[in-house]
Amino acid sequence: MGRMMRGPNGSAPDNGRPGWYGMGMMRLAAHPVTVPAGKVTVRVVNAGTLVHEVIVLPLPGAQAAGERAVGSGGRVSEAGSLGEASRTCGSGAGDGIAPGAAAWTTVTLRPGRYELLCNVRGHYAAGMYTELDVTR
Ligand SMILES: [Cu+2]
Fold first, then answer.
1. DSSP state of 69
2. Which of 15, 41, 65, 77: CA 20 to 30 A from 117?
């Protein structure tokens, strides 16, 4: 069976509107932060009030989580994506995880460093990323 991970934990904007307000407090956390190589089931609970998603990307070289270039659309490149959890109460890719809902995906990961991130417009720059390390 897979390992348990949770996130993202988007903060709750006081006015309930998506946008810049409250985005400085957005975050995404993995539990645990290190897992053995092989099939890894990423389970996500959206504890925030906005729609989120989690995408799994390798971290090249010495790059740290949060260092990807953000394009003019407020998103990062998903090239090389190994999978994503973005379907409300479902597996794999969808239209985003509704507030309060769960989502999941199973990916096969070799030993290395990975980044879990939310690529909803503006969320990466607001801090929705975290590193996941995979050991042998
Ligand atoms: Cu997000």
1. P
2. 15
Q: What number of other Cβ atoms are within 10 A of residue 77's Cβ?
A: 12
The model carries a pTM of 0.83
Q: Which residues line ion ligand 1, judged by CB < 5 Å? A: 52, 118, 120, 123, 128
Distance from Cα 58 to the centre of ligand 1, integer Å = 19
Count of beta carbons in the 10 Å neighbourhood of residue 118 = 34
What is the number of structural domains in the chain?
A: 1
pLDDT tens-digit readout, 73-123: 999 999 999 999 999 999 999 999 999 999 999 999 999 999 999 999 999
pLDDT tens digit sequence for 30-68: 999 999 999 999 999 998 999 999 999 999 999 999 999
> Is 42 a domain residue?
yes
- The rounded Å distance from CA 99 to ligand 1 centre is 10
| Ligand 1 center–CA 45 separation, angstroms | 12
What order of strands is seen across the sheet that includes strand 83-85? 34-36, 129-135, 112-117, 54-58, 83-85
Residues of the domain holding 54: 23-135
CATH code (residue 96): 2.60.40.420
3 located within any domain: no
